[in-house]
Specification:
Layout: H1 3-54, H2 61-70, H3 72-87, H4 93-100, H5 102-111, H6 117-129, H7 136-145, H8 150-163, H9 166-181, H10 187-197, H11 202-214, H12 218-229, H13 235-244, H14 250-261, H15 272-279, H16 284-296, H17 302-309, H18 315-327, H19 333-340, H20 345-357, H21 360-366, H22 375-387, H23 392-400, H24 404-414
Helix pairs in contact: 1-3, 2-3, 5-6, 6-8, 7-8, 7-9, 8-9, 8-10, 9-10, 9-11, 10-12, 11-12, 11-13, 12-14, 13-14, 14-16, 15-16, 16-18, 17-18, 18-20, 19-22, 23-24
């Protein structure tokens, strides 16, 4: 066959393929647009009917039941309406959902192993969005039996989280170690799911944490601690976390400290004695988190401990300890003086950096008046900061501070020989 004819055939085939793809794309869009238009029309028709049904008028109930059983577009339109009402918190919609047959329909699809995983997953999602409390047992059963089907299992877990009941939480907690070990969900997703239950069921989560710890479910303990530390931390949470500080697992210890650090200081008491061992822990990130607890629940006897941590081998720990000291403001002034007049250059640098980061430098500057009892101490600290090159902000204050006395004293501090400002 002539080469030109072959090339012509190839060009025609290529052109036909491109044309077919373009035509198919436009046809699919046209069909979808037509379907969406039809669904929107049905939604506008069904919306007042649903409102009437919620008010006690049952004249459209048989039509709703027919739609759910026979009309795919009508079912989608009606489904969107009831799901929107569920997500907006209208609990009165729940009996209607049951009566018109949505729960029965989607439970049947969820159980059907002849359907594809995406269709069964969608059924689980719809039961969750419709907040079908009565479907929790079925969801639990399918999750337990088919946890190896990750997409389906993930949809079931999210559905139970959307239902959000005590029974749904207990079902998740029962299978939590299993679904984490099988990597059905990531630890971060597990944390977010538990967090959805935390506002109403903190006591259940605390009990679950305690049980996970005693049964050796390490990953479940870690995920639960992460979730609780991001919720409103209560006294019973702190009590369990304090018990678990004795764990040999560093990841668990650091999460316990993070939870404690987020507790309400008005409702929870904490002393240095209870976290001293953590301040001396062999893991630097645990020492770091223990400093945050000490900063949150301040007691004066913790200051010497912080001074010792200014010599830590890790800069993150030194910075946190310095920040904790400086955060106390004038209450820590003598401690700051002691560090600056000491021998440890790393401790001095950490303290001076913290004075800037915590904004305490402005308070020291405001003490530069003859009427202030803290004049001499503040001046010594500021002079040292200037001597190691941390004077850029001080020079700006010399020009801008509203108090003439403070501007003059700060100028003499920076230029003791009487030189001009740089």
């Amino acid at each position: 066959m002539d080469i030109q004819i072959i090339l012509l055939i190839l060009v025609c085939l290529f052109s036909f393929s491109i044309g077919f793809i373009v035509f198919g794309t436009f046809l699919r869009r046209w069909i979808h647009k037509k379907q969406y238009t039809q669904i929107d029309h049905l939604k506008s028709l069904y919306q007042p009917w649903v409102d009437e049904a919620l008010s006690g008028n049952t004249q459209h109930m048989s039509e709703f039941q027919r739609v759910v059983d026979e009309d795919a577009f009508g079912r989608e339109a009606l489904e969107q309406i009831v799901c929107e009402k569920c997500m907006s918190g209208e609990k009165v919609i729940l009996p209607l959902i049951q009566e018109i047959g949505f729960v029965r329909l989607y439970e049947k699809k969820l159980l059907s192993k002849h359907l594809s995983i995406p269709l069964r997953s969608r059924a689980a999602d719809r039961l969750g969005r419709m907040q079908s409390e009565e479907s929790v047992d079925l969801l639990f059963q399918v999750l337990k039996e088919e946890s190896d089907k990750k997409d389906l299992a993930n949809s079931i877990i999210k559905a139970m989280a959307l239902i959000g009941s005590e029974k749904a939480l207990e079902s998740i907690i029962t299978l939590f170690p299993l679904i984490l070990k099988k990597e059905v969900i990531t630890p971060k997703n597990g944390e977010m799911i538990l967090l959805m239950f935390a506002p109403l069921y903190r006591e259940h989560l605390v009990k679950a944490l305690h049980n996970f710890q005693h049964s050796g479910e390490r990953l479940s303990v870690i995920v639960t601690l992460d979730a609780l530390s991001r919720s409103a931390v209560s006294e019973d949470m702190v009590a369990v976390a304090m018990e678990m500080l004795a764990s040999e697992d560093a990841e668990i210890r650091v999460r316990c400290l993070r939870l404690i650090a987020n507790a309400n200081v008005q409702r929870v008491e904490m002393t240095l004695h209870e976290i001293r061992l953590c301040l001396q822990d062999r893991q630097w990130f645990i020492r770091l988190q223990a400093i945050e607890v000490a900063r949150r629940f301040f007691c004066p006897e913790s200051l010497p401990e912080m001074v010792l941590l200014l010599r830590d081998a890790h800069w993150q720990v030194r910075r946190a300890a310095a920040g904790m000291i400086v955060s106390r403001g004038d209450e820590s002034l003598e401690t700051i003086i002691g560090v600056i007049e000491g021998e440890d250059i790393y401790a001095k640098e950490a303290i001076c950096e913290a004075i800037h980061l915590e904004g305490y430098v402005h308070q020291l500057i405001n003490h530069l008046t003859q009427s202030s009892l803290l004049f001499n101490s503040s001046a010594r600290i500021l002079f040292y900061m200037h001597s190691i090159g941390l004077s850029s902000s001080l020079k700006e204050v010399v020009l801008t501070h509203p108090s003439g006395e403070i501007r003059q004293n700060l100028h003499l501090l920076i230029h003791p020989q009487g030189g001009d400002n740089d």
